[in-house]
Amino acid sequence: MRDIASAAGVNAALVIRYFGSKEELFLETMRLNIDDEPLLDVPIESFGARFVEVVLSTGDIRGVYLALVRGSGERRIAERLREVHENALVAPLRARLSGPDADLRARMAAAAVGGLLYSLWVVGDEALAHDRPELVARYGTIVQQIITPEA
Questions:
Q1: Angle formed at CA 102 by CA 55 and CA 98, multiple of 5 degrees
Q2: Which end of the chain has the least Cβ crowding within 10 Å, N or C?
């Protein structure tokens, strides 16, 4: 806490006053939202690849995701991980979908993208990350199949 306060140019007591504990400070910094704007300007037929590209290129996602996954054994950190998953992955998908099973399709696609993030950033599958344009295209096709309702 002292190092953080020093870096911020404030007294450690002030940090404790506003956040209460290291865990509270950590939780406050572990928030993430994806900018919906790049997701709104593509037709739904090409949304899958765009969503994968946006998730992989949004700078804050990797750090927040890894910190929350690593700390998810703690109840409150696990709750924040679920909140970030809901806000950063499920909600942008759900906002573009319609139909009676839109929520389920959004959740399934978010789970697929979450698995991709796990493979890339937790497992460190370098072979998967080798050709990013192909990864985005192929994974985008998977996400597109999940979000496109069957006729």
A1: 100
A2: C
In this structure, the answer to whether residues 66 and 22 fall within a common structural domain is no
Question: How far apart are alpha carbons 56 and 138 in whole angstroms?
Answer: 14
Cα separation values, 52 from 1, 101, 104, Å: 36, 21, 18
Tens digit of each residue's pLDDT (9 = 90 or more) over 17-54: 776 666 666 666 666 666 666 666 788 888 899 989 98
Measured between alpha carbons, how far is 36 from 99 in angstroms, rounded to an integer?
Answer: 20
> pTM of the predicted model, to two decimals?
0.78
Residue-level length of the chain: 151
- Answer yes or no: do 44 and 20 share one domain: no
Task: Enter the DSSP assignment of 150.
Answer: P
Which tokens in the block code for residue 27? 């939780």
